[in-house]
Specification:
Layout lengths: L4 E10 L2 E11 L3 H13 L5 E3 L4 E4 L2 H10 L5 H12 L4 E4 L1 H11 L1
Antiparallel strand pairs: 1-2, 2-4, 2-5, 3-4
Length: 109
């Protein structure tokens, strides 16, 4: 996944809190290659999702991403650095949604 994909941070909001999560994606328009990578990930017990007409493999679970790094590894130092940065944070909740805070202020008036 080093040349046709990588690691990234993404944000989502749940119950008025914004969280930072970590993900990995691999993209290829070679369907035989995507199938081969899928088979390998399945054989290793790593859960993944297929997206964009089966051209993108995504791993969202931090447990499975760690498993991938422990078994397969990465020759791209940026991927390892991003994972280490994510793991060094103890709280992945960034902030409370401003919309909910504004609504709470209105209710208190």
């Amino acid at each position: 996944m080093d040349t046709d994909g990588g690691c990234y941070f993404h944000k989502h909001t749940t119950n008025s809190f914004t969280y930072r999560n970590f993900g990995m994606c691999f993209t290829s328009f070679s369907l035989p290659l995507v199938r081969s990578v899928s088979k390998v990930l399945k054989s290793l017990g790593i859960k993944f999702s297929l997206a964009h007409n089966n051209t993108r493999i995504c791993i969202y679970s931090i447990k499975d991403i760690i498993k991938y790094f422990n078994i397969v590894g990465s020759s791209n130092p940026k991927n390892q650095s991003k994972l280490n940065l994510y793991l060094s944070k103890t709280n992945h909740r960034i902030r409370r949604s401003t919309q909910v805070v504004d609504e709470a202020r209105l209710e208190s008036v």
